[in-house]
Amino acid sequence: MIITVDPSNPKPTYLQIVDSIRRAIATGAVKPGDQLPTIRDVAVQARVNRNTVSRAYLELEHMGLVRSRQGSGSFLTDNEPGLDQKERLKIIKRIADELALEASHYKIPLEQVIAIVRDSAAELNKETEHE
Fold first, then answer.
1. Going by fewer Cβ within 10 Å, which terminus of the chain is more open, N or C?
2. Structure pTM?
């Protein structure tokens, strides 16, 4: 699994790592029960501090996506995150609010934003089909 970090991205580095792993999960590049790369390996690969990777793994654990085993490493959980449909929709609504705000700030029309979201979803689906 390749974990990339973009130093020019304003998003915190640990969240970029979280997003990279979540994308790997969504596309099927990693499966439940798979072991994640060690914190040290990710830190070297992404050229970041080990504490940053540790924080990302802790965040994934809080999301219910990862379980750490002392001395064994971190593994993807076998079940979905423990969020019900209402909580998931709340999260998506928050993300949509952020997207709408950014689109408004950059004066991008709603139709174009919707097209971008559709293209992103189609790309994600293609990645999932090829796995």
1. C
2. 0.73
